[in-house]
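Hi R.,

Here's the chain you asked about this morning:
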Amino acid sequence: MQDFTPGPDTSRAFRDALGKFATGVTVITAPGPCGITANSFSSVSLEPALVLWSLDKASTRFDVYHDCPHYAIHVMGVEQADIAMGFAKTRSAFEELDWSVGAHDVPLIEYCLARFECTLEATHDAGDHLIQVGRVTRAQLREGTPLVFAGGQFGHFNKGL
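And here is the predicted structure, written out as tokens:
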């Protein structure tokens, strides 16, 4: 086992350690239309319905999201890896997608596993990221296998042991 103190000289090792934790993959959309792929999504509270995600302050999309009052978080299915990769590369990967415009002009991607339409509740400074807490105003879900990210790669979860 590698033992280290996180810092500038060990940033690769720290990223590798974080990559051992598998996460789901989301695409967050905002008016524009704009999209961004994020795996920093988490539930916060059932009552009230709150979720969070973290925005990299160095992101080229920081200007769109840092105080965006309304956005939607889309949980991607395993068959949607290309969508997630598209929004990881560019804010405007909508061309070949089925999507519609929801409340407050927020783009809504169709056929995702779950979708949370949110109103910005709070932001919290967190080092090189900005934590965004959203109040869920509407949610949608379907059956399917979630897209997972671990070790710098997309994959999926096999049910059962």
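One quick note: The helical segments are 11-18, 62-65, 81-89.

Cheers,
M.
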